[in-house]
Amino acid sequence: MDDPEEPRWLTDEEMQTWLALLSVLIRLPAALDRQLQRDAGISHFEYQVLAGLSMSPERTMRMSELASFSDGSLSRLSHVVGRLEKRGWVRRTPDPADGRYILAVLMEEGWKQVVATAPGHVDAVREFVFDPLTKAQTRQLRDIGRRITRATDPDDTCLE
Questions:
Q1: Which of 67, 75, 100, 153 shows the greatest Cβ crowding within 10 Å of its Cβ?
Q2: CA–CA dist 87, 81 (Å, integer)
Q3: InterPro entries, per this entry (predicted)?
């Protein structure tokens, strides 16, 4: 009988799987960051902010929603948006519908940056993630990612 106070240790297979996933979680963001720094002079987080705004209606999003989309704190996002503002890529403005919120708006120069950066980023994502996988493995990875995301954040709406 299992001892309820004994930890549920990982099996050998689970440990191998966990270490493989951990390696991906560490190495993939670093590889994407290197590609974006090399090709566009921006971090992966900065790109996520720009891309999130580029996909939003009127290229505008509340800072709180953008923080959630980019998986960053409001403080981190505020610093990054400040840097992007200095480049003329983003501006902040009070939300006219509710002045308690601040909107981030992608400016034309920021849009041009996204358009110029996206092809190289997509090539890197394809090289690192999709090219090594079969179509069936890609579907499995999508399903696995959704399951893990739901387990860690049941309220997540990004995957719908």
A1: 67
A2: 10
A3: HTH_MarR-typ, MarR/SlyA-like, WH-like_DNA-bd_sf, WH_DNA-bd_sf
Structure tokens at 149: 């995301």
Calpha distance 116→39 (Å, rounded):
10
Q: Report the top-level CATH class of 40-139.
A: mainly alpha
> β-strands 60-62, 102-106: how paired?
antiparallel
pTM of the model: 0.85
Identify any residues that bridge with 62 across adjacent strands, giving them in sequence order: 103
Burial class of residue 155 in the structure, from the number of CB atoms within 10 Å of its CB (0-12 exposed, 13-18 middle, 19+ buried):
exposed
Q: Are strands 90-94 and 102-106 parallel, antiparallel or unpaired?
A: antiparallel
